[in-house]
Amino acid sequence: MEPQPFEIGLYSFAENTPDPYTGATQDPARRLRDLVESAQLADQVGLDVFGLGEHHRAEYLSSTPATILAAIAERTRRIRLTSAVSVLSSDDPVRVFQQFATLDLLSGGRAEVMAGRGSFVESFPLFGYDLDDYDELFEEKLGLLLELRAAERVTWSGRHRPPLADQPVYPRPLQDPLPVWVAVGGTPASVVRAASLGLPMALAIIGGMPERFAPLFGLYRQAAREAGHDPRRLPLSVNSHGFIADDPKEALELSYAASSFIMDRIGRERGWPPQSRAQYEFAATLRGANFVGHPEQIVEKILFQHGLFGHQRFLLQLSVGTLPHAKVMRAIELLGTEVAPVVRKEIASRTGAKPAGAGL
After folding, report:
1. C-alpha torsion sign, points 73, 79, 83, 84
2. Residue ranges of the Luciferase-like domain (predicted)?
3. Given CB 3.0 to 4.6 Å as the disulfide criterion, which of 98, 103, 198, 327 pairs with 229?
4. Distance of CA 90 to CAs 103, 126, 182, 261, Å?
């Protein structure tokens, strides 16, 4: 079997947080236009994936990722378009499938679903779900989503949705099957579930030292083999926070101001202590979780983690908080033109895979 090429991309939650210096919030329509423009640039500079998360909070504009991704589809030609994540537990799998099948048709076969339980819980009361059913909801709805992508007509029954009796579901996507990933935050049971189902896994690493996550990748591959799946056919992704600039000091200054503003606000809700500048700077080192610095530092860190995990995809969240749009666009340019080619070439030499984006 030919090794899989290494993919590099971006993800966003369409953050619209107050500017850390002025306290002003951007016009939502302008923010969404900027987001589409950033995805268009990501496509132009040869990045492989653009992801958009789902949130139902005032700080974010991405309550319907498929809608925004459809707009992006019309402005791009090759970049893959994924949710990051779809909060499947509080959604209807039929509608999720229909939305992303439609996106797949509009984009010429570039859509993916990244299903997750979600790091926030606002969608549960919004759509009438009980948090006591948190795990059961996700497991049941993921099972239905997989049945929907496997067959045009579905017969199904469960506890949290009306049954389906030989019900046809349209439209059908171009890709067969429509790619479905499972996003996990580090819970071993979630890792085993993804592997047992034979689904690609995206692991969020947004804190701590990367070495402590290596056993989860081993657990995934072991569980996949035990379930009868070939782990070599199941790509793995690392999703992390970071920022890139020509000047590493600028990368730290800009990203720390933006990130600490929103992360400390969320931390107050959850009882987390504020993050100090020293902690943030350590997280930007080789052994930390964040990818912050100039292109050479980002290359070194991606390759370091690839040595630990052997993954096939890396997605970077640039805009953890509000950042100047021009600086974000420059970061995307650097990721696509200076980081991605070096990483692809080195990993291809390690694995024997053809570099992703090599045909550009």
Report:
1. negative
2. 7-303
3. 198
4. 20, 9, 15, 28
Asked if 316 and 10 count as a contact pair (C-beta separation under 8 A), the reply is: yes
For the record, the structure tokens of 227 come out as 């379930």
Token pair 């990993």: residue: 347
Q: What does the pLDDT look like over 37-72, one tens digit per residue?
A: 999 999 999 999 999 999 999 999 999 999 999 999
Q: What's phi and psi for 70, nearest 5 deg?
A: -65, -40
Within-domain flag for 359: no
In which element (H, E) is residue 113 found?
strand 111-116
Q: What is the pLDDT of residue 11?
A: 98
Q: Which of 267, 241, 266, 246 is nearest to 256 (CA)?
A: 241
Tell me the CATH number at 316. 3.20.20.30
In 3D space, the residue among 237, 220, 207 whose CA is nearest the CA of residue 316 turns out to be 237
What DSSP letter does each residue of 285-333 carry, written as one string?
STTSS-EEESHHHHHHHHHHHHHHH--SEEEEE--SS---HHHHHHHHH
Structural domains counted in the chain: 1
Any bridge partners for residue 316, and if so which?
10, 240
The C-alpha atoms of residue 293 and residue 113 are separated, in whole angstroms, by 30
- Domain region containing 265: 7-351
Any idea which residue has 């809700």 for tokens? Answer: 269
Q: By the 8 A CB rule, do 43 and 357 touch?
A: no
Question: DSSP class of residue 275?
Answer: P
pLDDT on residue 356: 66
Mean pLDDT, range 172-176, rounded to an integer:
98
> Is residue 285 included in any domain, yes or no?
yes
Query: Is residue 113, in this structure, part of any structural domain at all?
Result: yes
Sign of the four-CA dihedral 122, 270, 117, 6: positive
Report pLDDT for 120: 87
Q: Which of 200, 182, 194, 226 is nearest to 4 (CA)?
A: 200
**Residue whose token pair is 């083999």:** 225
Q: What is the pTM of this model?
A: 0.96
pLDDT digits (tens, 9 = 90+) for 319-330: 899 999 999 999
